[in-house]
């Protein structure tokens, strides 16, 4: 794999008068020191010079009450294999501030902020000229999967059984959803607008977003673009987060825990290349 760089950017939502951070990883011209962000080590060099060329863009939407720093293995692998990857922190639904949890507004804001994040990377003074604007993909975990499906054309429905108006983004040409929260899409035809290839992962032992929620997506996609379902044996809901540092792997910290016998590190060594292969093939397919 090649050298990668890391850049922190701040994105503005002028309508709401707020900003939110994002981390961008990208192919770098030369290798350098790793970057430490809180307890997490990124195998990427801060503000490294980008490698020559134009690269596909991948945006990652984190889970509810989570962090944009928790998908390092996926993001770093993609960056090292020729992708620009950006992970925003969702305002109002992150580890520091979670007032929008379980609200319709959270879905609306997430979708809007994913589009704003794409805009920000395409116009970034360091990276903008290195991004292929017609090769954009999205990855979402849990409620992040809800947002990615909406971004790609889905219409989420509220608990009051009313459609939630979101702004779709036709720039997204392929997507990966990890343990998606799809109870928002149980209304008939709510996913009929999703016309892009999907790779869908589910944990066999996930009790938060059980396998049926991933299967719902696959069934809905049968009439449009195909969706590939991967059910990960022995995996729980948090298996898709990067392995945590040893000091954080305590019984009290639930996101670091896995069902007995499940090897998260080994799983990520398999999953990250699978995602890269899927996105590379679909973004190179002019029919995607």
Can you characterise this structure?
With 288 residues, the chain is of the alpha/beta class. It has one domain: Alpha/Beta hydrolase fold, catalytic domain (Rossmann fold, 3-Layer(aba) Sandwich), CATH 3.40.50. Helix content is 24%, strand content 24%. The protein contains five helices and eleven strands, in the order ββββββαβαβαββαβα. It has helices at 72-80, 104-122, 143-151, 211-221, 264-284, and strands at residues 4-13, 18-27, 35-37, 40-42, 45-46, 55-61, 84-88, 131-141, 172-178, 198-203, 227-232. The strands form two sheets. Strands 5-1-2-7-6-8-9-10-11 form a nine-stranded mixed β-sheet, with helices on both faces. β1 and β2 form a beta hairpin. α1 packs across α5 and α2 (104-122) packs across α3 (143-151). The longest helix is centred in the C-terminal third of the chain and has 21 residues, at 264-284. The chain is globular, with a radius of gyration of 18 Å. The protein starts with a strand and ends with a helix.
């Amino acid at each position: 794999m090649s050298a990668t760089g890391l850049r922190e950017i701040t994105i503005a939502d002028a309508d709401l008068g707020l900003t939110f951070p994002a981390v961008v990883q990208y192919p770098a011209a030369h290798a350098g020191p790793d970057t430490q962000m809180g307890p997490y080590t990124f195998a990427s060099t801060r503000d490294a010079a980008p490698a020559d060329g134009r690269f596909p863009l991948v945006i990652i939407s984190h889970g509810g009450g989570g962090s944009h720093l928790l998908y390092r293995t996926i993001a770093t692998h993609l960056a090292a294999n020729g992708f620009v990857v950006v992970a925003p922190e969702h305002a109002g639904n992150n580890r520091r501030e979670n007032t929008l949890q379980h609200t319709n507004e959270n879905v609306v804001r997430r979708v809007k902020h994913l589009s704003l994040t794409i805009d920000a990377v395409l116009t970034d003074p360091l990276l903008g000229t290195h991004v292929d604007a017609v090769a954009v993909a999205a990855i979402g975990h849990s409620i992040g999967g809800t947002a990615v499906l909406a971004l790609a054309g889905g219409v989420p429905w509220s608990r009051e059984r009313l459609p939630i108006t979101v702004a779709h983004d036709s720039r997204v040409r392929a997507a990966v959803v990890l343990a998606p929260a799809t109870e928002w899409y149980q209304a008939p035809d709510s996913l009929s607008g999703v016309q892009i290839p999907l790779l869908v992962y589910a944990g066999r032992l996930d009790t938060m977003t059980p396998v049926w929620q991933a299967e719902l997506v696959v069934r809905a996609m049968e009439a449009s673009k195909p969706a590939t379902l991967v059910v990960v044996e022995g995996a729980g809901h948090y298996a898709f987060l990067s392995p945590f540092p040893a000091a954080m792997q305590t019984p009290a910290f639930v996101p670091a825990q896995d069902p007995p016998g499940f090897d998260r590190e080994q799983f990520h060594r398999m999953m990250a290349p699978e995602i890269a292969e899927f996105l590379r093939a679909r973004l190179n397919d002019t029919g995607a």
